């Protein structure tokens, strides 16, 4: 384990700057998501189900916009993509807190369609600014920052909703998110290397190495190996959102609903620890191995007999959350040409959003028909199935002459497999 790798990553100015900027971008974004629900329930006097419809409209719009916004980043650059988005965000969220329910749904959806593609931008900068051998460490650090933002954002949102009028709280946090988008516009970090801009895809062969082979592609870069990584990303969020629902159902069954907050915090802490450990590890692992491990450590949570054992098992299953998400981005960066990374990250975000949308109702259906234990078992089965299918497809597509065929741990510097599975 090389903890010093984090020092090397933070020594890179662009990487360090974008990691700090990511905190300012994500905290108000996560706070705004919670505030939107609380505003619908309290200020508008609607049900949680109706609040969920507003969130769903925004989420679907974001999922639709991901590839489109990412493609614009590739074609016309950061400022010409982000500038109109900021204008739309300010316009929508200046009006949305003061309108009725139907208008709020429409404005939330419109804002979602023109959302600033912050996750795509930040990770593109990380991929561009860090050497290949340091990407896993840098992406793991970004995942850790995301976890911290996810812990802080909702807490700040709830505090603001209880301290102020929810309309004003929603307005202020959404304006803060727009201001963070404006900061990205001002900084205007380069998304691709100079070599990529001048030479197109010529440089990519050296970066991707022998794993890059001619494949039948959709939209220029979505080959079968790329598609199964997107499937793994979706399956990862199926497992995560299903686990989220399972935690609530289990603690209600244990008659300890007041423990939901700190148990979820333990789950997040496990993910934070796992992400930092994976970034410091001296080898990479295939996303399909990590997804399989995530699914297999989620299933035993169903064996918990009370809150203490449940808390321990949920912390353990959290350890592979961040590493699995990190591995999806890292593996895609090796498979997709640099000139298409904006769209690549857009599809990645859409895949994860789709998994989130499917995971909660799927786990809820299993819980309704078999108890809280089946929520964990059902999403675990999805994760294991996708991991096996993805591994088999990636091995078949790699070809017999590909030294990266198989899966398993790879040397983090050379990218050459040292085990039996692909990088």
TrEMBL record:
Signal peptide: none
This protein's UniProt keywords: Membrane, Transmembrane, Transmembrane helix
UniProt xrefs under InterPro entries: MFS (IPR011701), MFS_dom (IPR020846), MFS_trans_sf (IPR036259)
Protein topology in the membrane: Multi-pass membrane protein
TM helices/strands, residue ranges: 18-41, 47-65, 102-122, 168-187, 221-240, 260-280, 287-304, 310-329, 349-367, 373-393
Disordered: annotated span: 400-423
Residue ranges of every copy of the Major facilitator superfamily (MFS) profile domain listed in the record: 169-423
Subcellular location: Cell membrane
Pfam families: MFS_1
Listed name of the protein: MFS transporter
């Amino acid at each position: 384990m090389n903890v010093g790798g984090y020092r090397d990553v933070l020594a890179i100015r662009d990487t360090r700057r974008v990691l700090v900027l990511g905190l300012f971008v994500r905290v108000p974004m996560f706070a705004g998501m919670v505030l939107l629900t609380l505003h619908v329930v309290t200020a508008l006097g609607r049900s949680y189900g109706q609040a969920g419809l507003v969130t769903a409209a925004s989420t679907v719009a974001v999922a639709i916009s991901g590839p489109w916004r990412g493609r614009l980043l590739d074609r016309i650059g950061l400022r010409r993509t982000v500038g109109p988005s900021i204008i739309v965000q300010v316009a929508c969220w200046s009006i949305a807190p003061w309108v009725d329910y139907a208008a709020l749904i429409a404005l939330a959806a419109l804002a979602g369609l023109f959302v600033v593609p912050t996750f795509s931008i930040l990770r593109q900068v990380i991929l561009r600014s860090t050497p290949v051998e340091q990407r896993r460490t840098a992406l793991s650090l970004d995942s850790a920052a995301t976890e911290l933002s996810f812990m802080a954002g909702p807490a700040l949102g709830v505090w603001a909703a209880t301290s102020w009028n929810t309309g004003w709280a929603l307005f202020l946090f959404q304006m803060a998110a727009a201001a963070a988008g404006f900061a990205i516009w001002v900084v205007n970090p380069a998304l691709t290397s100079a070599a990529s801009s001048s030479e197109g895809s010529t440089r990519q062969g050296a970066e991707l190495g022998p794993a890059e082979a001619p494949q039948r592609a959709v939209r220029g870069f979505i080959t079968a190996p790329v598609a199964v990584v997107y499937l793994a990303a979706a399956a990862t969020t199926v497992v995560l959102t299903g686990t989220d629902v399972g935690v609530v159902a289990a603690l209600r069954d244990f008659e300890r609903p007041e423990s939901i907050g700190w148990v979820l915090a333990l789950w997040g802490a496990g993910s934070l620890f796992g992400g930092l450990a994976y970034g410091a590890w001296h080898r990479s692992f295939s996303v399909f191995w990590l997804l399989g491990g995530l699914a297999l450590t989620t299933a035993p949570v169903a064996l918990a007999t009370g809150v203490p054992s449940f808390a321990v098992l949920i912390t353990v299953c959290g350890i592979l959350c961040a590493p699995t998400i990190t591995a999806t981005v890292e593996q895609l960066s090796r498979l997709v040409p640099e000139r298409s990374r904006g769209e690549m990250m857009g599809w990645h975000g859409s895949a994860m959003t789709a998994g989130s949308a499917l995971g909660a109702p799927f786990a809820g259906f299993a819980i309704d028909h078999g108890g809280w234990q089946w929520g964990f078992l059902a999403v675990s089965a999805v994760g294991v199935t996708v991991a096996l299918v993805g591994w088999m497809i990636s091995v078949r597509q790699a070809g017999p002459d590909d030294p990266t065929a198989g899966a398993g741990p790879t040397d983090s510097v050379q990218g050459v497999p040292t085990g039996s599975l692909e990088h």
